Amino acid sequence: MQIHPIDLHFQGQTEIIAAYLIETGKDLALIETGPGSTLPTLLEGIRTLGYSPEAVKHVFVTHIHLDHSGAAGWWAQQGATVYAHPRAVPHLVDPSKLIESAQRIYQDRMQTLWGDILPAPAERVVTLKDGDAVKLGKTVITAIDTPGHARHHHAYAIGDVCFTGDVAGMKLPHSSYVSVTAAPPQFDPVAYGDSLQRLHAANFSKLYLTHFGEVTDVAGHLSRYASRVEQCYECISDLLAQGLKGEALREAYGAAERAIATQVGVSDADWAKYEGANNTAMCADGIALFCEKSPR
């Protein structure tokens, strides 16, 4: 088995969104598709590796946020089989609610950011439950139910490596700062902690983050990230207790995160990448939503 990371150059930036092409023998598998806006880059990346996109027969969706699976419907329409969490499958077959929700948020930036979001033919979509495995030649890809960022989230294990989607956060390859992925509406710090503990107990040798790349210090990363999830939750809880809401809350949370990043040497250019992959204003909204629904 060979793993090929492909940088999708989201919005012209490197190290924002990755897709992973997996050699499984006769066919190819893809973990993460990225959004429709980066589909041409993904197809070119596959060709650059010496493969035809038509050889991609299996597509694994970690969750249905558009930066991860916006192009999944296109692949299904080409005849690939798409695998996803039970809660995600209906939205792949009929993405109208996803599109409507995203349109309200992104308005005239919708097409530029996310491109076309196509429905997946129902017969091309396979539901995977926790622990379900797909055998592709000698390669076995196993779904791991990992809520916390989203209730419809799978990580995928192949042997002793794991493709984590958003459940292990966002980190640039050369940086020690880890950004907590907490976009609304399903952030849950308790579920997050349980999922991270589960990944920790699996003793993976490597993690592959969608945002962004390979992590070899698995135990250290998961431990630090669990602490960061709690830290960000505490930060929003404290800001809410101070009476901050709306834009004031977003600005305060963004400033707090920028200060943490600055302490470990994150440059302005790299901070722009962090914000491009995992916007702090949106994360503030996601954490605040949990706090409002589940007050202490």
From TrEMBL:
The protein's UniProt keywords, in alphabetical order, are: Hydrolase
An MF annotation (GO) of this entry: hydrolase activity
The record ties this protein, via InterPro entries, to: Metallo-B-lactamas, NDM-1-like, RibonucZ/Hydroxyglut_hydro, ST1585_MBL-fold
Q: Does the record carry Hydrolase as a key word?
A: yes
UniProt entry tagged with the keyword DNA-binding: no
Pfam families (alphabetical):
Lactamase_B
**What PANTHER family is this protein classified in?**
METALLO BETA-LACTAMASE SUPERFAMILY LIPOPROTEIN, METALLO-BETA-LACTAMASE DOMAIN-CONTAINING
Protein name (Swiss-Prot/TrEMBL)? Glyoxylase-like metal-dependent hydrolase (Beta-lactamase superfamily II)
